[in-house]
Amino acid sequence: MQILVFGIGGVGGYFGGKLAQAGAKVSFVARGQNLKALRENGLTVKSYLGDFRIPQVVVSEKLSDFKTPDLVLLCTKSWQLEAVAKSLKPIIHKETVLLPLQNGANNYDKLAGVLPKSHVLAGLCKIISFVEAPGVISHPFFEPEIVFGEIDNQLSKRVIEIQNLFIDAGIKTVVPQNISLAVWQKFLYICTVSGLGGLTRVPIGTLRSDPFLRKLMMDTALEIQQLANAKNIPLTESDVETIFRIIDSQDPQTTASMQRDIMAEKPSELDDFNGYVTTEGKKFGIETPANSFIYHCLKPMEQRARKL
């Protein structure tokens, strides 16, 4: 199976590296200093589960340099997905499978809006990793996991094949009974903490211990639950309680990746997180004052980061 990893940050670098380490045929799309480092020194992953290095990496910034992929792992940011899908059109074949692993509630919809639905799976990952230096991925803790499936939850032949591929590479893999619910459960957590973290510029320990900020996080989460239910996604109050247990259990200095992008004045997933809840809330007649407040406070900074 020819595997193409599009985006070699913390997610693509770790999972692509694990697949390559296991002997899979993996290629990477990279640019700039990352591309140069990967060509010269290969890929290094520093993991608490065991460091490893892939000395020779198949990598390019040009899709035309790659063989037609059977599986594409999409590890970019959610706001880049539509452009990535368009760029992939010339090199995929009729059975190529695209698996999105980034945060966001509507990644499947974005891909299916550009490419035939038959190419697209729904998915997410759970991992704490980042680029330490060009060509070097740091994975300090938490056992990574890929969660994916067909959008109709059928246990198809291709899902089983990809699951076995991941398991053989030592990647914890889950095919849930309801992949849309799993996507929204992850979105519930990441959207609840990311925007408010970016707005306040404080770590999760401060967000959860300040009574006003904790209530604002709770309001954000409850609005997401309401929207999910309007879309027939069975998020429950129990799911909200679960994400707050996760919030309360994390290292107090934890920050979300979107928060770090905002603080670094980089383009972020704001429109796909709190902005998405705000926009979709209007469509479904759901009031979203907490998400709207966070979104509109951050929007001028997002526009500046994107030079709009």
Fold and architecture overview:
Helix 6 crosses helix 9 and helix 11 packs across helix 12. The relative contact order is 0.11. This protein folds into two domains: 176 residues, NAD(P)-binding Rossmann-like Domain (Rossmann fold); 125 residues, N-(1-d-carboxylethyl)-l-norvaline Dehydrogenase, domain 2, CATH 1.10.1040. The longest helix has 22 residues. By secondary structure, it is an alpha/beta fold. The strands form three sheets. A five-stranded parallel sheet has the order 5-2-1-6-7. The protein has a four-stranded mixed sheet with strand order 4-3-10-9. The chain is built from twelve helices and twelve strands.
> Mind telling me the CATH class of the largest domain?
Alpha Beta
Q: Poorly predicted ranges (pLDDT <50, ≥5 residues)?
A: none
Helix content: 40-55%
Based on DSSP secondary structure assignment, what is the total number of beta strands?
A: 12
Structurally, the number of domains stands at 2
Overall 3D form? globular
- Enter the CATH topology name of the largest domain: Rossmann fold
Classify the secondary structure makeup into a structural class.
alpha/beta
Biggest sheet record = 5 strands, parallel
> First CA to last CA: what distance?
41 Å
**CATH H level, superfamily name of the largest domain:** NAD(P)-binding Rossmann-like Domain
| Assembly of the depicted chains | single chain
Strand content: 15-25%
Quote the average pLDDT. 96
Helix and strand pattern: EHEHEEEEHEHEEEEHEHHHHHHH
Number of helices: 12
Can you list the strand order of the major beta sheet? 5-2-1-6-7
User: If you compute it from the alpha carbons, what radius of gyration comes out, rounded to the nearest whole angstrom?
Assistant: 19 Å
Task: Just name the CATH architecture of the largest domain.
Answer: 3-Layer(aba) Sandwich
